[in-house]
Amino acid sequence: MVRRRLLIEGWRFIHHSYALVAQSHCLCMLKRGDLDLRFRDLPFHSELWKPTPGIFAPEQEQALSQLVAPESGFAPEATFSMHPERPDFSASPSGRKFVFGTAEYRVLSAENRGGLNSAAEVPDTVSVVAPSRWAALAFERFGLSPERIHVVPHGIDPAVMHPDEEDRAAVRRALGVQHHVVFIAVGAMTWNKGLDILLAAFARVAETEPDVRLVLKGVDGLYPSQDFVREVLDDLPARARETVAGRLVYEGRTISTQGMAHLLRGADCYVSPYRAEGFNLPVLEAMACGVPVLCTAGGPTDEFIDAAFAQRIRSMPIRKRLTEKESGDALEPDGDHLVELMRHAARDRDRRHEAGAYAARHALEKFTWDAVTDRLLAALLPASG
Predict the structure, then answer these.
(1) Residues 143, 109: contact at Cβ < 8 Å?
(2) Contact, 8 vs 37, CB < 8 A?
């Protein structure tokens, strides 16, 4: 068998979505026998970021660590380049190049354009991979033809992300929330995640549903997530701040993918009143773990959720100023509607259980890493002849 040559450029061994995506694709590719795979490590976004072992299972990390950089004579048929925030649109010395981009605000800022003024300057051998149609629009606006933009969603590992009632009971005991309704949100806790909207809504929900609890999973190893939470709490009125603080569980440590699944299973509902996202992988991971979701209507999550297990928070389009000269698209979720949806979720235990089962089946049927990696490879290495 002639193996097809592929190079991936990106991050490894760090708890960042770009690294998780790159490594998950690699693990799927390594199971195949038809690829000759190389990996080029890119510098981390910050010198403060350090590799963190234990994110994947030991045997998976061993396999990932054995991926080597391309030798001088290695000529890939395709290069999949994942330069976060600063994509490299230059042509590859060999074969086609596919640049990954999230474009949360549906526009390419000066930083995101790699020094180019328009898509007319992008070599013909360079195309784009985006995780959603929402994000892909940025590249169309830049001037790339739709034929050069490939939408490939993210995925989940069903061996890790799946329902488990015994594990769910264990994490709820560990958190001391066995008898409470638990909402959860995961992310950097930045403005685009809608943390201010979530905490304000949760304070109101707790007034009528005092048994609710909120778990926030930050990313303190990469961002000052806990500081962002404190800032939002401090901006709340005193009574609301006390209401939230007394019911809040915060976890900012770097944990494994198994640990993330463990934490998600302990929740009754995942809440994401985001303003801008390129995909929103934690929503999909929560679904896979059997957790129903509430998330902003109109954004990229519309592309992979279903009304059988997810409720959309009403939103209105807004413009977000990115620099003095540049603005992008965002969404402003309706806080009143979020309160209504959270209260309903807190009161309807049977509906939560049924919706969670639907969510897990949907993720397993359509969004495993194996399935989406097949879609990626169909774009990177189309069948010849």
Answers:
(1) no
(2) yes
How confident is the model over 41-51, as a mean pLDDT?
90
Rounded Cα distance between 66 and 288, Å, is: 29
Give the gyration radius of the chain's Cα atoms: 21
**pLDDT tens digits along 299-308:** 999 999 999 9
Residue range 244-265, pLDDT digits in tens: 999 999 999 999 999 999 999 9
296-300 LR contacts (CB < 8 Å, sep 24+)? 296/194, 296/272, 296/331, 296/333, 297/331, 298/331, 299/134, 299/274, 299/331, 300/131, 300/132, 300/133, 300/134, 300/135
Count of CB atoms situated within 10 Å of the CB of 71: 8
Q: Which of 301, 297, 374, 300 is nearest to 341 (CA)?
A: 297
Q: Which residues contact 133 (CB under 8 A, 6 or more apart)?
A: 151, 300, 303
| Residue-by-residue DSSP string for 27-95 | HHHHT-SSEEEEEEEPPPSSTT----TTSS-HHHHHHHHT--PPPTT---SEEEE--SSS---SPPSSS
| Amino acid letter for position 315 | S
φ and ψ at residue 113, rounded to 5 degrees: -95, 0
Task: Identify the structural domains of the chain with CATH numbers, from first to last.
Answer: 4-155+369-380 (3.40.50.2000), 165-366 (3.40.50.2000)
